[in-house]
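Instructor's aside before we start: the two examples that follow are unrelated to each other. I chose them only because their records fit on one page, so don't look for a connection. First example below.
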Amino acid sequence: MSQRLSISATIFLVLTVALSLYFAFAAVQGPSGILRRIQIESEKVELMEERDSLAAEVEQMQNLTRRLSDEYLDIDLLDERAREVLGYIRTDEIILP
């Protein structure tokens, strides 16, 4: 003997399955889903690496700035920068093309 579901029970079952599928899809693919979270974590790691790289660059620039300041003048660094930026050479140097 087979029992048939009533129309309201069938509609309820179909709606329940449809909503379950929708929420499962949203949990995986939606704007707050699992895949988006993985992407955000990956971007976070990349941005933290970039931040660390920029912090090291800033620290190096601060060191160079301090070494060229009035309180602490590094003559070798000053000579190197003048040669590089202004194109200066000493009189005892020979430039080879």
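Example two begins here.
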Amino acid sequence: MKIEFFHDVICSFCFPMSYRMRQVQKKYPNIEIIHRSFALAWDAEDLNKMFGNRDNAKKEILGHWEHANQNDDLHRFNIEGMKQADFPFPTSKNGLLASKAAKLIGGEEAYWQVFDNIQEALFVNNKDIESMDVIKEAVLDADLNWDEFEKVFHSDEALEAVNEDLKLAYRYGIQGAPFLVINEKYGINGAQPIQVIEETIEKIAVEIHEPLTLIEDGQSCSLDENGTWTCD
């Protein structure tokens, strides 16, 4: 089974969703998770169009953080800290390019680690994720070589890879993030509870006779075509 996970570094509901998808991957190790960029506000002009200016953007988006923090299983958002931060609300561009550059260097897990690092920098530590100093911290924490990363980050290849994801999202009809596309056919919209995600995955696996492996309590289990788990 293949799951395409569309998300953005500035997307507050993508933060709890990424945590849940890591649990999903751990529980169902034969699922392939592919990370896709979905820019909510690529540059400052996008924020100005949506909110009038970046000050208004910050005020309104912090209201979204309140709801996202309730959705987050760990309630990690530092909302008061962000209110005191002296930089404008950041845009998507540098964080998405950084995540995609990491993928080009180290694959899906490198993308995911840099993406998570950047989101934590914003939502928990209230750092300006447009800053290349903050990007560098996220990249080095993912054990990537900075000199190699910089070359890829500034390359046409990284930008084109982000744009290809955006085109794919358009073809799927996706209008927001987070969004999961399963086997290029089924969709899960929004930061759904882990139980909903798991039930949907198992239901689809039965419907399309897709092999699914589950690891739980040290046991390896397989789902048969009748929807019954058989464990070793």
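The mean pLDDT is 96.
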